[in-house]
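P.,

For your records, the input lines for the assembly:
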Amino acid sequence: MVVNLVVGAAVINKLIQQIVPLNKFLISTVFLFSFIGFTQDDYTNSYKKRVLETAEIDLLFSYYNQDGQNAAVSGGEGTEELTDATSSIVVKIPLNPNDILTVDAGISAYSSASTSNVDPFDKNSRRASPFSASSGASQSDALVHFNPSYEHSSEDRNSVYSAQAYVSSEYDYFSIGFGGGYARLFNEKNTEVAASFQVFLDKWIPQYPVELRDGFSDSRITGIGTYNPAFEAFNDETRNSYALSLSFSQILSKRMQGSIFMDVVSQSGLLSTPHQRVYFGDSNDFFIEDFQLADNVEQLPDNRLKIPIGARLNYYLSDLIVLRSYYRYYSDDWGITAHTASLEAPIKLSDKFTLYPNYRYYKQTAADYFYTKETAVSSQDFYTSDYDLSAYNSHQYGMGIRYKDIFTSAKVFTFGLKTIDFRFGKYDRSDGLDSYIFSLGTTFVGD
Amino acid sequence: MKKVVLLLVFTALSSSCVVVKEYDKVYLNDEEMMLSAKGSERFETNFQIYREAAAGANGGKSGGGCGCN
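Structure tokens returned:
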């Protein structure tokens, strides 16, 4: 409990520090969106249904916990224990009958045993080991994000334009992004075609494993010969991502509709994670206590092209059950292909309660550069022991429940409670990683 | 890839065959029938983006903005 309070205080302090430099950006963005909205505020005397009738506030919370034995920070062998608590607020404001401003902001605080082992030699607590957490500074961190977006619908509601911005920051990573989109409905709103783009300009603040940093020395090092890793810091610390998304949606009958999505994502820059160790098969092993010292950090190409193609098909089976299905095929030029399939069957128990049993299956092949511990050799150009890039499959089982009150009889100030959503998911991966997640969401609407 | 293109063409062609009138969309307008990912799924999608190599094609983030895969 005390630890939680200390972490919470640190997180709030960090959030304040993160938010202050963003002030100018936030003010400019809100001003820009407000200006666009009000210049288009052309009310007419005739009634026109608003795109969004009244302001909405979503309050969202999640708790995530995982464990596994293949931590990338310790070269594919070590604890992956991690907990994450995330809170977000999403505010949707109708600026006029045609325009909606949405502001999405949140903070994600996590505590990770594996990233604590960026520096496993804290000397205070336990014997250094990849299977236990250190109490170092990298043990916990917080990610804050701010994501405003603006949407304009045409008078006939057949065209929708959107624009968005994105800023996020955590201890070793900063991201700024923007994007825009256009959707067109035709065929009496039976068909929709949409295109959008997103650009992210990210920057690493690398936190290399402590033993690879300049000036590191420790009298406890054991091994044959002298520890002298072939490590060089990355020159380029930026990561740029450009994504083009296309979608096509179609009503197929009075009870069925589907859509197809396709993204083309190009990434360049530092695509390796700077604190993920690699151990070579052709190098001598060195240890401090039970912790093996890195031979290098992972090296991945500085370009990647990803192409996911997905499809949804929803069927209104009866007034009791709806079927929601999803499939995605993914491939990239690192040699990974993946299949994702999921099915959710909302069951309407009453006007107020709906259950959401769901299942998701995922399978991927390994990246060309993936090697288990001590199987890569030092002469290779690219290598990683990140099991997230290995071959595996996973099963996710979940259940959700929604309470909905269309009369919003429960009030908080002038906002009425419209929905409460609670979800639980259990995730099991074939390499031994398992996790669970709780999420809670509430939606309030203005009078 | 060829199959996907064929599927796209087939779906596009099929659009001219079906026109459901507004007054017949009572089932299609049910909120469980929406074709985008639901807001309540966002946290699950977030952890999947970190833990899995594949991302995107679900209306959300498909690369960038995080130190993930």
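Two observations worth noting. Chain B touches chain A through 49 residues (CB under 8 Å). The first helix of chain B runs from residue 2 to 14.

Regards
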